[in-house]
Design brief:
This protein has 213 residues and is mostly helical. It has a single domain (2-204), classed as Fumarate Reductase Cytochrome B subunit. It has 5 helices and 2 strands, in the order H-H-H-H-E-E-H. The protein has a two-stranded antiparallel ribbon with strand order 1-2. The chain is elongated and about 55 Å long. It starts with 6 loop residues before the first helix and ends in a 24-residue tail after the last helix.
């Protein structure tokens, strides 16, 4: 019975009882967008190694995934507005909640800004290579960029390339920070934070309370 538990175990059991996971739809959006972003990072790292038709195919896949991330992120934002996320786990300290909010908002910015800058640089490029999503759907150029005078298009292209590369580097840092934080919660604090996105972990979590970590 719970009355036989120590005070630490009772607090941990209470934390388990108060555990709230994200909705199935939110979990789907989280993992599919994460997988697509990681896939695009890996593809981008191959650009210097491929040439000719293979290079063109790699760019088309990269663009297709980028536009997919943009569309899925817009749907994810709409879902979030209509279905607010669960409250933070009560094992999290104030600074952890603040850091989590900052990283989350930064990710949302990246999920929109990174594909938008990619779309802009593709639209302003003088190569005029159309975007064909996964070889099936023709995606239009960003409105107005295709009709700009050459000098203005060149300026937009240069700015978009610089922004895209900078955002990619920020993405690397955010991914590393996010993964390290998740691993800390799972293996050091041993709370249910990661289980909010992987609900099956909640069934395997032993009673333990490490809120001070």
């Amino acid at each position: 019975m719970l009355s036989n538990y120590s005070a630490v175990e009772r607090r941990s059991a209470a934390a388990r009882d108060e555990f709230e996971r994200f909705t199935t739809v939110a979990i789907f959006f989280h993992w599919i967008v994460a997988a697509l972003i990681l896939a695009n990072i890996l593809i981008a790292w191959q650009f210097p190694l491929v040439h000719g038709s293979l290079r063109l195919a790699a760019f088309q896949i990269h663009k297709s995934i980028g536009i997919s991330v943009l569309l899925l992120s817009l749907l994810r934002l709409a879902w979030r507005v209509l279905n607010p996320p669960p409250p933070f786990a009560n094992t999290m300290r104030a600074w952890e909640m603040g850091a989590s909010k900052l990283v989350e908002r930064s990710f949302y910015f990246i999920m929109l800004a990174l594909p938008l800058t990619g779309w802009a640089l593709s639209s302003a490029s003088d190569l005029h290579v159309p975007i064909v999503l996964f070889g099936v759907v023709h995606w239009p150029d960003m409105p107005f960029l295709g009709t700009l005078p050459f000098e203005q298009k060149l300026g937009v292209y240069s700015s978009a390339v610089a922004a895209h590369h900078l955002l990619a580097k920020i993405t690397y840092a955010l991914v590393a920070l996010h993964v390290l934080a998740a691993l800390r919660h799972q293996f050091i604090k041993r709370d249910l934070v990661l289980a909010r996105m992987i609900p099956s972990l909640a069934r395997r979590r032993p009673l333990r309370d490490l809120r001070g970590y």
